[in-house]
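Notebook B, p. 112. Complex prediction, attempt 2.
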Amino acid sequence: MKLSDKKRQDILAAAEQLFYKQGAEYTSMDQIAKQANASKRTVYNHFETKEVLFQAILLNMFERVEAVNTISFSADMDLKQQLTAIAKQESDLLKSDNFLRMARVVFMQMLKQPELAKQLGNNKIGCMRFLESFLQEAVNNDSLKIDNIEFAAKQFVYQLKSFIFYPRLYGFEIPTPAQETQIIEEIIAMFLARYENRSAKV
Amino acid sequence: MKLSDKKRQDILAAAEQLFYKQGAEYTSMDQIAKQANASKRTVYNHFETKEVLFQAILLNMFERVEAVNTISFSADMDLKQQLTAIAKQESDLLKSDNFLRMARVVFMQMLKQPELAKQLGNNKIGCMRFLESFLQEAVNNDSLKIDNIEFAAKQFVYQLKSFIFYPRLYGFEIPTPAQETQIIEEIIAMFLARYENRSAKV
DNA sequence: AGTAAACTACACTGACGAGTTTACTTACTA
DNA sequence: TAGTAAGTAAACTCGTCAGTGTAGTTTACT
C-alpha cells in the first residue's frame, strides 16, 4: 500500500476513535493529526474540512453496519426460536462497538441538526431490513395474526432498543448477559401473546 | 418585583430557550445576555459560571416536570380504561414543551458526560412514579398476572417513549393525533394480551 | 540519479467564547 | 435626598480551534 493511502486510513481510524470517545465537536484536527501520526497539513490534504472528514467517517461506519444477515421465515421451524434468533442477532448488533460508535456520533449530531434525522431516519437498519417480510410470511403461514405489520415490527425492535441499546448509548445501567437473555425471552413472550395465531390449523 | 429578581428570571428564561434551541454547548453567555436584555456582567453577577447557570436551569425544568398526577388502581373500573388514562397522561407529558425542552438539553449533555446519566437515570419520571404500585394492586386484585412488575412497567413506558417521545426528540416522523390514539390502543392491547389474568375469578 | 508528489514541522491568521475589569448610570431604601 | 446595591457598555485577557502558508524532507516512480 502506498504511503498516501496508509496515511488516509490512519487518519480515518484516528478520527473515528476520537469522535467516538469524545464526540466530533470535542475533537480537534490537531488531536486527530497527532493520533494518526500525521501532520495537520496532511490531514487537510486528504480532507478539505473537518466536516468532510466527519461525513467520510459516517459513510464508513454505515457501510460496516449495513452488512446484516437476513433471516427468512421457515415454516418448518419453531416460530419462537426463529424470533429469538432474530432478537439475538439484533441485540448483538445493538451492542457492537461499531454500532455504538456510529450511534453516538449520529445521535449527537441529530440532536443538533434535525435535518440529519430526516435524512437518516428512513434508512432501515439491522433487522428492520427484513423483519417486516419475515412477519408477513409468518402471517401468510397462519402462524401469526397481525393487522399492521409495520407497527408490529416496530414494537419488536423498539423494545429491544429500549432495553439493550439506549442504556448503552446514554450510560444508564446496562443489563447483565443473564438479564439480557431474560429480556429477550420476555419481549418475545409479549410479542407472541399479542400476535400468535391461536386458531391456526394444526 | 425588584429589578434584580426580574433580571434573574429573564436570564433563566433566555438561557432555557437558547439551550433548548441550540444546546447548552452552542450557546454563548453573550447570546444569553443579549436575549435577556441584560449586560453580560449582570449574567455573571447572578450565576458565577455557565455551568452554574446550566444546573439552575436543569433544576428549574425538573421541578416543572415533576408534578405528575398519580393514578391509583380502582377495582371497580375497567382496567383497560385505567391503563388508557395512564398512557394518555404519560403521552401528554412526553409531548409537552416543558418535557421536550428539558429532554433535549439533558440528552445532549448525557451523550457527552455519562456521569450525568448515572446521576439522573435513577430519578423516576412521569408515570414510572406510580405505575409499579398500580400494577401491583392490579395483581393483588387478580386482574393482572405479572411475575416481574418492574420489568412490565418498563415495557409499558418504553413503548410509549419509543413511539411518542423519541420521534419528537430526534426529529423523526411524528405520528398524527389519530395515529397516536391507535398507538396507545395497540400498546395496551399488547400489554393486556401478555399480562391479563384470564383465570380471574369473576 | 532525478523529479514530482506527498509528507513534515511549525508559525501564523482570524474567529469565537468564558470570564474580568473599568468607568459610569440607574434603582431601591433609610 | 444621600448612599449603596445592582445594572450597563465596552474593551480586554487568555485559551482554543479551524484552516493556511512556507520551507524543507521523504517516498515512489522512471
